[in-house]
Write a structure and sequence with these properties.
This protein has about 350 residues and is α/β, with parallel strands linked by helices. The protein folds into 2 domains: about 110 residues, Aspartate Aminotransferase, domain 1; about 240 residues, Type I PLP-dependent aspartate aminotransferase-like (Major domain) (Aspartate Aminotransferase, domain 2), CATH 3.40.640.10. About 35% of the residues lie in helices and about 15% in strands. It contains 9 helices and 14 strands. The protein has a 7-stranded mixed beta sheet. The protein has a 3-stranded antiparallel beta sheet with strand order 11-12-14, covered by helices on one side. Strands 1-13 form a two-stranded parallel sheet. The model has no long low-confidence stretch (mean pLDDT about 95). The protein binds pyridoxal-5'-phosphate. Pyridoxal-5'-phosphate binds next to helix 3.
């Protein structure tokens, strides 16, 4: 079996231990004589899997009891519309921080439903920086504030949680969830597509404070209404059962590895050494203001972009794959989520130094 170090931004690597276990349980799940994929979502075996996955996520993230955890479909992008439908029923106004590609998309969708007030905007800086802590002024009458704690494409990450007072804070954590401990009680809603740091594509996690449920607009489709989904234990219709099961295996794996405290330490170390390698060599460059550099997505440019293709080809031959940057940014991007072993980052750094020596 040859596994490569896959630096894809998503769908991304999964822990080999998790894939192996899924393989072992694929055809006959724990003596049931069937695959998890073949189970009724309302049968006792799957309900057990679903409940265990939620319990483990609650434990991992230390989610308070007054929050519901939903296991939905449609990706983070579906939530871009669900958020204003569920929360934008008061003043009909919402504050958004515009800090990158995904904020742009969230704002575009929200504008269909609410008055969007952009309270911070780093587009003029090409999304290479973030507002400093305390710098952003929020509207007291907004129904909610939305931001993207980690922007997957530009590689910027908030090192703080914005203080929005009594206005519920909504966070698109698609590319940073489970990367370090966070205080869930500071948020009204946390949501994330699974395919970066949780499990396979097809599953979307929504963590929502209970007092925010049941306030949706009258014309909200049932599938997008968090209260409907919460009442149905995320089984208003057939949920993405296999992806839910796989996410459960990942949660179990992370707990066994020491939880998010331990993940945070490893992720910080992985990111620091990669940025040090970039900063320490004139051949490479990362455009992000150091205080706001992402632990998860590390874009970097070669001094001579005519070498990009050679870099990717040579890296690929060494089992370092999907390093191409997003088409809107160019250059390279190494996504180093939880499942990227530290040895993968070390191998990348070794390759980068060697490549620079030969071509610099
Ligand atoms: C990948 C990503 C999305 C889009 O997720 P889908 O699940 O494909 O809709 C949204 N926000 C962020 C921050 C992402 O990284």
């Amino acid at each position: 079996m040859a596994r490569v170090y896959n630096f894809s931004a998503g769908p991304a690597m999964l822990p080999t231990e998790v894939l192996t276990r899924a393989r072992d349980e694929m055809v006959d799940y724990q003596g049931t004589g069937m695959s998890v994929m073949e189970m009724s979502h309302r049968g006792k075996h799957f309900v057990g899997i679903a409940e265990q996955a939620e319990a483990n996520l609650r434990k991992l993230m230390n989610i308070p009891d007054n929050y519901k955890v939903l296991f939905l479909q449609g990706g983070a992008s579906t939530q871009f519309g669900a958020i204003p439908l569920n929360l934008g029923n008061g003043s009909g106004k919402a504050d958004y921080l515009n800090t990158g590609h995904w904020s742009v998309k969230a704002i575009k969708e929200a504008k269909r439903f609410v008055d969007v007030n952009v309270v911070a905007d780093t587009k003029p800086e090409n999304f290479t920086t973030l507002p400093a802590e305390g710098e952003t002024t929020f509207s007291p009458d907004a129904d909610y504030v939305h931001y993207t704690p980690n922007e997957t494409i530009a590689g910027v990450e908030f090192p703080y949680i914005p203080d929005t007072g009594d206005v519920p804070l909504v966070a698109d954590m698609s590319s940073t969830i489970l990367s370090r401990p966070i205080d869930v009680s500071k948020f009204g809603v946390i949501y994330a597509g699974a395919q970066k740091n949780i499990g396979p594509a097809g599953l979307t996690i929504v963590i929502v404070r209970e007092d925010l449920l049941g306030k949706s607009r009258e014309n909200t489709p049932a599938m997008l209404d968090w209260a409907t989904q919460a009442e149905a234990d995320s089984m208003y219709n057939t949920p993405p059962t296999y992806a839910w099961y796989m996410a459960g295996l990942v949660f179990e794996h992370l707990l066994a590895k020491g939880g998010l405290e331990e993940m945070g330490k490893i992720n910080e170390r992985k990111a620091e050494k990669l940025y040090a390698a970039i900063d320490g060599n004139d051949f490479y460059r990362n455009p992000v203001e150091p205080a706001y550099r992402s632990w998860m997505n590390v874009p970097f440019m070669l001094a001579d972009d005519s070498l990009d293709k050679t870099f990717l080809e040579e890296a690929g031959r060494q089992g370092l794959v999907t390093l191409n940057g997003h088409r809107s940014v160019g250059g390279m991007r190494a996504s180093i989520y939880n499942a990227m072993p530290e040895a993968g980052v070390d191998a990348l750094i070794h390759f980068m130094n060697d490549f620079a020596k030969r071509h610099g």
